[in-house]
Amino acid sequence: MKKILYLTNLYYVAKGRNYYDEDLYITEKLKDHFDVVLCHPQNAEAFEDYVDLIVFRNTGGVNSFKEVYDNFKQRVTNKKLNIFNDFVGKADMCGKDYLLELDKIGYPVIPTIDNKNDLQLLPNCDKFVIKPKDGCDSIGLEFLTKEELLKRDLDDGLMLIQPAIDFKYELSFYFINDQFQYAMYAPNKEERWRLEKYEPTAKEIEFAKKFINWNDIKKGIQRVDACKTKEDELLLVELEDLNPYLSILELDDDTRDNFINNLIVQLNKA
Length: 270
Ligand SMILES: Nc1ncnc2c1ncn2[C@@H]1O[C@H](COP(=O)(O)OP(=O)(O)O)[C@@H](O)[C@H]1O
Ligand SMILES: [Mg+2]
Hints:
Elements: E1 3-7, H1 19-30, E2 35-39, E3 53-56, H2 66-78, E4 83-84, H3 98-104, E5 127-132, E6 142-145, H4 146-151, E7 159-163, E8 169-176, E9 179-186, E10 196-198, H5 202-215, E11 221-228, E12 234-240, H6 253-269
Parallel strand pairs: 1-2, 1-3, 3-4
Antiparallel strand pairs: 5-6, 5-7, 8-9, 8-11, 9-10, 11-12
Magnesium ion is lined by residues 225, 238.
């Protein structure tokens, strides 16, 4: 059997999600197909030379263990460690700058700037969102009126500025490599992480796939987060390409089994 080092933080406290539940479930399923060992990224170095594959999962925001993460990334490159997700993504794993780029090249993302001098590039509106480029879990995200925005010092270029979208709901598309697996949505805007199964149209899957194709990660699990506007348009909120939470325990049995089976196949190939 292939040996897998499964990196997670079982004790990470995330709003509305139990990371440990998901990782206990997944590793319970993997154990019949791989020799699996679980650890926090902080302890990875002692084991990483002895496994066939490292799976990077629900570790939480890497800012909380930045030095450990940077050293790990360095070793992945230097020692050519076999890792899933591949650390070659251009999206969230590198911070939120990619939203500026995708906006510039005309992809359907929430219009995004990082400098108040560019306000004319955003649609006319009077409510805005600012969020740190290296943020996660809504840390540092604020809703501002135009007046508040104009007063705010944002000259350091560390924040993104977007119109506040009054969306109908948020939805997420989950992929293994470039294969669409399932979609979920948050019917209640106040409860971002109480998700239900969503049946996307072919066109909606195509929307999500566009970002997966752009990112071009060969091995890994990605989550495309989008919002559905009042005009029924889909806009990208975030492309989570490092360690997306999967809400796997909220799925129906068939979808979940199918996902796990596909994951086992792809981990075997990786
Ligand atoms: N431009 C926006 N307009 C309205 N709501 C937003 C906007 N950007 C983010 N949000 C809300 O904040 C949440 C977190 O934002 P997101 O960009 O996903 O950052 P994080 O990396 O913190 O998850 C989103 O799920 C959404 O509910
Ligand atoms: Mg998010």
